[in-house]
Amino acid sequence: MCGIIGVVGAVDALPVLLDGLRRLEYRGYDSAGVALLHGDSLWRARSADGVESVADLIAKCDDGPHDCATGIGHTRWATHGAPGEHNAHPHVDCASGIALIHNGIIENHHELGDELRGRGHVFTSATDTEVLVHRIEEFRREGLTLTEAVRQTLNEVTGAFAIAVVDAAEPGVIVAARRVSPLVVGISEGATYLASDIPAIMDKATSFFSVDDDQLLTLRAEGVTATDLDGTPISLAPLVVDWDLETAQKSGYPDYMTKEIHEQPEAVRATLLDHLDKDGTITFDEMRLSDDALRAITKVTLVGCGSSYHTAMVAKYAIEAWARISVEVDIASEFRYRNPVVDETTLVIGVSQSGETIDTISALREAKSRGAIVVAVSNIVDSSMAREADAVIYTRAGLEICVASTKAVLAQIAALEVLALRLAQVRGVLSTERVVELFHQLTSTVDLVAEAVSREAAVTQIASQIANAHTFFFLGRHVGFPTALEGALKLKEISYVHAEGYPAGELKHGPLALIEPGVIVVALATDPALHEKILSNIAEVKARGATVVAVAADGDERIDAVADYVIRVPATPALMTPLVDIVALQQFAYQMAQSRGLNVDRPRNLAKTVTVE
Ligand code: M6R
User: Fold this and answer.
1) Mean of all residue pLDDT scores within the chain
2) Domain identity same for 381 and 443
3) Is 307 in the pocket of ligand 1 (CB under 6 A)?
């Protein structure tokens, strides 16, 4: 979480920082700040209200920091210390000459802080971060260069960090480092940049490099030098960046969520592209796993968080149905603490939009340490997960900025279902004819997704009529269950309404006690094989006074008689129904948030990429 940016070189640093921070706000927006080297002094501005208020603050300042060549900026998602100006980054040392920004958590900050206080340092924040800048200050007083002072400090630290540090006494330099929390470097003629994520600097730099764990960087106008934390020189790995600036902008849409919902047909189409050879073989160029390795697998375990956990659940149904392998799905944060049973015949798949979610990375590391074959499903090329896994499957959703995931979710389902077909084919469970037929069914969902997206007005109209409701249950069976979980999650995260997703069969085992007039039940009724069962569940909640919104396929004539409202979606093969049903649920959640006047792109307390446990 948190976004960090830095620039050093022949550019006016302030607009670069503000522009970059605006594009990083999806990572956190509790507060923001910048620090610039101005002559021989350090200039700092922070606000508890995010990037725009930092910009306003600076605009009102007569002696503002113009034409500074070196600066760093931060947009915060609070972990230690409540949101507020005093906890906003950058943090400074006692003499206000050194400034530091940080994304991550310093786990031993209590011990370090006690020692530093004992030696007379005065702390002005409640963050875990501030210890770093005071310790660097001590090493600087001993005569170490800024790079060496940062290195010594980081060798005393446990936890996660992406940091950037500037010192007025060493102008023209930014020192940065990474452990766990993401960091990228960009270089252009005469200027060097760093950021948590590419979009912040993608229109500024011309070449990009990834930074790995425990790498320390010294950035100057003319480029970057890198070492490990022992001081051994290393080369940074070049990064492939295939986005343009347009992808990071709203392009006429009112918000990123709407834009990204509308980009879903393309996300699915691009993700499915080039996976079927002329001879009917399913292929994954980047997968790097031999047919023999796939044949030797005895179990598949999928891990993910949030929406990515839900898509992993959808994949379980597809892999078990088509490839006939036993599949477990785990919430990534639970996996490594349960002594999981995996070995070299287990395929462990980490599902993630960002490829940076710390819980999923940790789960994959745990699996790898136990000998499992580890595959990352990542939307970001060269993400941490993609680089660490034995193999990678890329979803091609393009840059997703809205905190609530939409197009990445559909792309993950598409990619995982192709993987299910690959496993079915290589293990000889399905004939090539059947695999080709199912693959074509998958590609035809692109039009069905487009059709679902186009029905926005009808969903909006229904959602508007029940916008004042406070309690929602989403019920589904089979792949309708993870779809229900995803619908409930979308509603919770952007409308702040209490919503629960449930397998419809569990209704009688507790939740029915909560059903009363005023409760809304959203029932997923698109799977023909389970239609009768869902109709019974609808009858049960209706009998207890609930209002029912059904998501039903075109041509379902029975649903109108039992549901209060019906959201129609195009009829879709059962295992692929999440691809269209989820679109309707995204639009539903969007309208609930709109009715409440909420900012859908920036839900409270959340951040797009969760890089802390
Ligand atoms: O980048 P990841 O897919 O690993 O992120 C996982 C979750 O944090 C993410 O899906 C989150 O639940 C979204 N806000 C859901 O809309």
Assistant:
1) 94
2) yes
3) yes
Task: Say if ligand 1 is within 6 A of residue 376 CB.
Answer: no
Query: Which whole-number Å values give the CA distances from 311 to 10, 222, 306, 412, 484, in the listed order?
Result: 45, 44, 9, 6, 11
Q: Identity (one letter) of the amino acid at 292?
A: D
Residue 416: name the closest of 465, 486, 504, 353 by CA.
Answer: 353
Question: Are residues 364 and 286 part of one domain?
Answer: yes
**Closest to 376 (Cα-Cα) out of 358, 355, 362, 356:** 355
Q: How confident is the model at residue 604 (pLDDT cuts 50, 70, 90)?
A: confident
Assign 19 a pLDDT band (cuts: 50, 70, 90): very high
Ligand 1 pocket test: pick from 180, 335, 353 the residue with the most ligand atoms within 8 Å of its Cβ: 353
Reference 209, options 247, 170, 166, 176; nearest CA is 176
- Distance (angstroms) between ligand 1 centre and the Cα of 161 equals 20
Shared domain for 113 and 241, answered yes or no, is yes
410 shares its domain with 478? no
**Mean pLDDT on 319-327:** 98
Q: Is 305 in the pocket of ligand 1 (CB under 6 A)?
A: yes
pLDDT reported for residue 537: 96
| pLDDT tens figures, 330-348 | 999 999 888 999 999 999 9
Find the domain containing 540 and state its range. Answer: 455-595
> Do 295 and 315 share a domain, yes or no?
yes
Residue 138 belongs to what H/E stretch?
A: helix 130-141
Find, among 271, 287, 337, 380, the residue nearest to 608 by Cα: 380
User: Is the distance from the beta carbon of residue 308 to the nearest atom of ligand 1 less than 6 Å?
Assistant: yes
CA 354 from centre of chain: 4
Question: What pLDDT, on a 0 to 100 scale, did the predictor assign at position 458?
Answer: 97
Domain CATH number, residue 214: 3.60.20.10
Q: What is the 3-state secondary structure (H, E, C) of 334-357?
A: HHCCCCCCCCCCEEEEEEECCCCC
CB 479 within 8 A of CB 314: yes
User: What is the number of H-type helices and E-type strands within the chain?
Assistant: 19, 25
Are 317 and 424 contained in the same domain? yes
Q: Which residues contact 472 (CB under 8 A, 6 or more apart)?
A: 488, 491, 497, 498, 499, 500, 519, 520, 521, 522
Contacts of 145 by beta carbon, 8 Å cutoff, 6+ apart: 170
142 and 74 part of one domain: yes
Q: What is the pLDDT of residue 526?
A: 97
Rounded CA-CA distance 569/453 in Å is 9
The string of pLDDT tens digits covering residues 483-514 is 999 999 999 999 999 999 999 999 999 989 99
55 alpha carbon to ligand 1 midpoint, in Å?
A: 29
Q: What is the pLDDT of residue 481?
A: 98
With 0-12 / 13-18 / 19 or more C-beta atoms within 10 angstroms meaning exposed / middle / buried, residue 240 is exposed
Same domain, 417 and 505: no
